[in-house]
UniProtKB/TrEMBL annotation:
This is Tetratricopeptide repeat protein. The keyword Membrane applies. It holds the Pfam family TPR_16. The keyword Transmembrane helix applies. It comes from the Bacteria. TPR repeats lie at residues 192-225. Keywords: Membrane, TPR repeat, Transmembrane, Transmembrane helix. Signal peptide: none annotated.
Length: 528
């Protein structure tokens, strides 16, 4: 029996309940939509922060690294467990420690790296940072094993190649290190840090033109990369270029004091020291060196330039300065070989020989791989070392030892082959072995005048004078002056040389030729 009004109650109850359920669903749906929208917005902000951090890191200046840090910190406030961001933060702190020498950055790098590894990051920053930190801490065996394991797994990136280059450099395998630095720079050509690292490695070896070219690539990627600009200026100064060409760069960098990390401050002061040294003011150079070492006590270029300034003053402390530089960077040939040359020039033959002995000890066990895959002692292929040793021995009057060293340099058949031919030829000339000297000197001073070594043409001119061939000798001396002028030798020096040759001809009973010589050579130093 139907109860009056019951059907209406059911209908009313069903409609209200349905409306309530619809309302609940709508609320839940709105909440879900809001949650998904918020989550999407958060993810978008995280992605944007990570992109911005990477882009800033790529530019490589301290202010850029600070911007990258700020974006990473903002990202971590949104997502503390972002594993790739943690890996990037580790890489950034490693850069601040290894390149800019920021206090405490090594500990921060390890902390970020441990978090990235715990979260399972497999980004290139994670593995690259780990390898670079191991090399920077001197854990070369651990770094070698890690790089070999990653290579076996097929890992390959410019950052791993850079770590490999730094490892090889520490081990004294300089030829292989150069190749790795070059590959890393080529693979990361948009990142100025890689080309800058390559340039610094070349500078350590005294390869100044190649270093300047590498720094130029870095500034092509970022024209405002401060470390590349300052170190390029230093390389040019070491190469003997006039300081006026780099002073504007140094002044501009100096005006940006807030942007200078300890590394940049030290490097800039070293460059300023070299400017002072080029202008004949070693005392001012030493003041800049002190400022560089105050900014960063381990700056090996500062210690090296201190040695150069003290050698210019003929101070006995030069040897100690050069030895301190070598102790900071034992596998940098520039420091030891140039240091030995300068010590010898100031009369400290004992100190020069000690520098070379230390260099030989450093590289004695190092092996180099030949084109056919064989391993040979690296010193056997190091013509720079044997040339330097030969020069020291020759200056000390030990001619037989000098000849043996020059023969080693010739056998290496390296980039210094022409220099080795000249060095041995000049020594044989001094010993009056004219035939032996002539065969070597003509190889680098051809009769066409196309050779690039003024000193080789001058030596050949002296040889021909000694044999009574004055006309042919004058021709070689003329080539020597032409080459010297083309290489920027001052006019007064050219005039002095020409007058010396004129006097030689007159005392040899050749007055007519002496007059003809001066008429022929005069335009070389009268017009510049």
């Amino acid at each position: 029996m139907e109860t009056p009004g019951r059907g209406d109650w059911k209908r009313r109850e069903g409609l209200g309940s349905a409306l309530a359920q619809i309302g609940v669903v709508a609320v839940l749906l709105a909440a879900a939509v809001a949650w998904f929208v918020h989550r999407g917005q958060v993810q978008q902000e995280m992605d944007a922060r990570l992109r911005t951090a990477r882009a800033a890191f790529l530019r490589g200046n301290p202010s850029d690294l600070a911007m990258a840090q700020q974006n990473l910190e903002a990202l971590f406030a949104l997502a503390p467990d972002s594993r790739d961001a943690r890996a990037l933060a580790a890489d950034l702190q490693a850069e601040l420690w290894l390149t800019h020498h920021q206090p405490g950055a090594d500990a921060k790098a390890r902390e970020q790296l441990e978090r990235a590894e715990a979260l399972g990051s497999r980004s290139g920053e994670r593995y690259g940072a780990r390898a670079l930190l191991l090399v920077g801490a001197g854990q070369t065996e651990e770094a070698r094993k890690l790089l070999e394991e990653l290579k076996a797994q097929g890992a390959n990136s410019p950052k791993l190649t850079l770590a490999q280059a730094r490892l090889l450099q520490k081990q004294g395998q300089l030829s292989e290190a150069r190749q790795s630095f070059a590959r890393a720079a080529e693979g990361a050509w948009k990142d100025p840090r890689f080309s800058t690292a390559y340039g610094e490695a070349l500078l350590d070896e005294g390869m100044f033109p190649q270093a300047v070219e590498a720094f130029s690539r870095a500034t092509t990627a970022n024209p405002d990369h401060l470390l590349a600009r300052v170190t390029s200026a230093l390389a040019q100064l070491y190469a003997g270029r006039p300081p006026d060409g780099v002073q504007a760069t140094l002044d501009e960098v100096h005006s940006r004091a807030k942007d200078l990390t300890p590394a940049l401050q030290a490097r800039m002061e070293v460059a300023q020291a070299e400017v002072a040294l080029a202008k004949g003011n070693p005392d001012q150079a030493l003041t800049h060196v002190d400022a560089a070492l105050k900014a960063w006590p381990d700056e090996h270029y500062a210690l090296f330039t201190r040695g150069r300034a003290l050698a210019a003053k003929r101070a006995p402390e030069a040897r100690q300065a050069f030895e301190a530089a070598v102790a900071k960077r034992p596998t940098a040939p520039l420091l030891a070989l140039e240091g030995a040359r300068l010590l010898q020039a100031q009369g400290d033959g004992e100190g020069a020989l000690a520098m070379l002995d230390a260099y030989e000890k450093t590289f004695r066990e190092v092996k180099a791989r030949t084109a056919d895959g064989k391993e040979v002692p690296a010193l056997d292929r190091d013509d720079r070392y044997w040339l330097a040793r030969g020069g020291v021995m020759e200056a000390a009057g030990r001619q037989d030892d000098a000849l043996a060293a020059y023969d080693k340099a010739l056998a290496a058949r390296g980039v210094g082959l022409a220099r080795a031919q000249y060095a041995k030829g000049a020594l044989l000339l001094a010993r009056k072995d004219f035939e032996g000297a002539k065969s070597l000197l003509t190889a680098v001073a051809p009769d066409t005048g196309t050779g690039s070594m003024p000193e080789a043409y001058a030596a050949l001119g002296e040889l021909l004078f000694a044999q009574g061939e004055f006309a042919a000798g004058c021709q070689q001396h003329y080539f020597a002056l032409v080459r010297a002028r083309a290489q920027g030798t001052p006019v007064d020096q050219l005039a002095t040389r020409a007058n010396d040759i004129k006097k030689r001809l007159e005392t040899s009973g050749q007055p007519t030729m002496a007059k003809a010589w001066l008429n022929e050579a005069g335009p070389l130093f009268q017009q510049q």
